[in-house]
Amino acid sequence: MLQRLFRIATSVLVALLLSGCERSAEALLDDYVTRVGRVLDAEPPAQQAMALPVYPRPRELLQSPQDIRLDLLDAWALRGCEVFVLIGERNSILGKLADPVIRLDYERRLLELLPACLNSDIELGDELRTELDNALAQKRATFHQHLWNATLANPDYSGYWTDGSTAIKPNDDIDAAGYATSQQALADLVANPMQSTQDDWLNVLQQTTQYPMGGHSLQSMRLAIQTLQQAEAMLNEAAADKRLCPMGPAMKEFGYARNVMANVFVGEVQPWLGEVDRRFLAGFNTLQALTDALGELSVGLTDYQQALDILHDDFRTVIRAQVQAWQSLIEACGGEVRR
Fold it and tell me: What is the pLDDT of residue 130?
């Protein structure tokens, strides 16, 4: 009986320890704001409502490149070339239903194999050769639309920003560096699509869907802005009325406040803020690279991209303001803040 009770007690203790290790971002920041309010004898102001940027619906971004196909007789004339098999794949039922990534790979292979066929010693009539040259030119002109559909208009990519309804947990075990690498790999594929394979695209997009790091970083920045603004208001008010040194000399609460700054803000909150910033930039830098590479098609994402940029600027601004608020509070009572 005692052994059973001991096992139960041990299990409960382990669960409590684990839950402590997996503290949420909300718990971290709520604790920070509570401590600031307690040491300053202040009530946190209400949080300001804040909407996040909304990624356009992928179907609204989808491009419709002209579908150019050869009839069976023309295709048969290419039977001595590898491109003949590729055209057969495209004309099959599965080819007609191919998703954007598979369609992109088809277009890429066609742009490789058709010129090779035309430059070979295959016998083609002048009319057919002209038709194939025109088709090749049109395929080259619309390739970037297939590239767009496979990336920025692909639900697998948009989910990177729209999924992820919670803020990033402090000290989580997510392989953020690995997911950042996959984002860079996506940017590299778009920059050099002709050197890619279908497996390259599928692997990168699979990693993108595994963990929506962009969405989690947006939730984290909103939470940080809302809570740091609460703490900033209390810190600035206390600095203005010299609440921790009303008669000149600093009260004992001044020391408590410095401890909150050093142990909680600097020791716990700032490392989390830095991780949020790094995870956001991993996706945002890739988004910028994709829109730059795809040129005029990216107009549909201009507003979203600008909104993300503004949100990130606000995030960094509120962090700088928090540091300044602490400095003002400490200096109001004759103290110094080490930089």
Answer: 80
Whole-angstrom distance, CA of residue 172 vs CA of residue 21: 9
CA pair distance 75, 81, nearest whole angstrom? 10
Q: How far apart are CA 169 and CA 88, in angstroms?
A: 50
For residues 238 and 319, the answer to whether their CB atoms sit within 8 Å is: no
Q: Write the DSSP string, 74-127.
A: HHHTTTTSHHHHHHHHHHSHHHHT--HHHHHHHHHHHHHHHHHHHTSS----HH
Single pTM value for the model: 0.86
- Contact in structure between 44 and 230 (CB atoms under 8 Å): yes
Amino acid identity for residue 111 in this structure: L
Q: Which residues contact 204 (CB under 8 A, 6 or more apart)?
A: 182, 185, 186, 189
Provide the residue type at 171 as one letter: N
Q: What is the pLDDT of residue 30?
A: 98
pLDDT digits (tens, 9 = 90+) for 107-132: 998 888 888 878 877 777 777 778 88
Give the burial string for 249-276 (b: 16+ CB within 10 Å, else e). Answer: ebeebbeebbebbeebbeebbeebbebb
Cα 31 from Cα 37, distance rounded (Å): 10
Return the H-helix or E-strand segment holding 315. Answer: helix 302-332
pLDDT, tens only, 297-322: 888 899 999 999 999 999 999 999 99
pLDDT in tens, 199-214: 999 999 999 999 999 9
Helix, strand, coil percentages (3-state) for the chain, rounded to 5, are: 75, 0, 25
Measured from the Cβ of residue 25, the count of other Cβ atoms closer than 10 Å reads 22
Rounded Cα gap, residues 114 and 189, in angstroms? 22
